[in-house]
Design goal:
five-stranded antiparallel sheet
């Protein structure tokens, strides 16, 4: 369908919790196609629907050459810890060390309404948490240590 424009902070849709998808319609099928086409670019690990201006619970991913999507994702389990560089398409050019669980498991559905489970450690675990945060109205800057968050917000305002 289309590679969509990425919304950036301070766009209010990025701070608005997304609504669950109630039924699979042609519009939802187009949304998934757009998410998949937009995330399928080198350096893009994940993309939530609100990052392309749609306030529904869906995201796509592109991890180690595997591209996919999930609808109505919910984090079921996290464990362990990782502390590493994180960036975001909606916060272009800023990378900060961010604390996340090392392992995450997310459940949701596919376009046929069938259950889907995504899980992983490292980058996959980080992406699952990052995208679910987006769908809950948060950006990764919210997770930064206090002084780093202040610095990041100053950088965003100076652009």
């Amino acid at each position: 369908m289309a590679i969509r424009e990425i919304r950036v902070v301070p766009d209010p849709i990025l701070r608005t919790p997304c609504d669950p998808i109630r039924s699979i319609t042609p519009a939802i099928e187009r949304l998934v196609t757009d998410l998949l086409e937009t995330v399928d670019d080198p350096g893009r690990a994940g993309l939530s629907a609100n990052q392309i201006g749609v306030g529904l619970r869906a995201f796509s991913y592109n991890i180690e050459g595997k591209v996919g999507y999930i609808l109505n994702p919910v984090i079921e389990e996290t464990r362990g810890e990782q502390y590493g560089d994180e960036g975001c398409l909606s916060v272009p050019g800023l990378w900060y060390k961010t604390r996340r669980a090392d392992y995450a498991r997310v459940s949701g559905i596919d376009l046929d309404g069938k259950p889907v489970t995504l899980e992983g450690t490292g980058l996959m675990g980080r992406m699952l948490q990052h995208e679910c945060d987006h769908l809950d109205g948060h950006v990764y800057l919210d997770r930064l240590e206090k002084e780093e968050r202040r610095q990041a917000m100053r950088m965003m305002r100076s652009r």
